[in-house]
Design a protein that fits this description.
102 residues, mainly beta, 3-stranded parallel sheet, 8 strands, globular
Length: 102
């Protein structure tokens, strides 16, 4: 959205940097929904130089945010981790504007 219609963000700026994120004693958690970092409702956010070891393919997520940057986030063995938009929260269309099924 542009101009005066821009949504308000809960967090104007967020910087998450230099953290080690893992389960206790490096055990793999059977819950694959555990997140490393989630940036939600952030106007300008950065997650950089974090080391994440979790049992999840996408431990870095963002949603309902404007500008999010990810730099040099890695697994302990050095593999880079890419940030991902959290698609499990799709925007729901209004029933007044949604087409009716035929």
């Amino acid at each position: 959205m542009e101009g005066d219609l821009a949504p308000p963000y809960v967090f104007r700026e967020a910087l998450i940097r230099g953290n080690t994120i893992r389960s206790i004693e490096n055990a793999l958690d059977p819950d694959t929904q555990v997140l490393g970092i989630r940036l939600h409702s952030t106007e300008n956010g950065t997650a950089s130089h974090n080391v994440i070891r979790l049992n999840r393919g996408t431990p870095l997520l963002h949603d309902f945010s404007k500008i999010i940057n990810y730099f040099n986030n890695q697994k302990p063995e050095g593999t880079l981790i890419q940030g991902t938009y959290a698609t499990q929260y799709p925007l729901i269309r209004s029933p007044l504007t949604s087409p009716r099924p035929t």
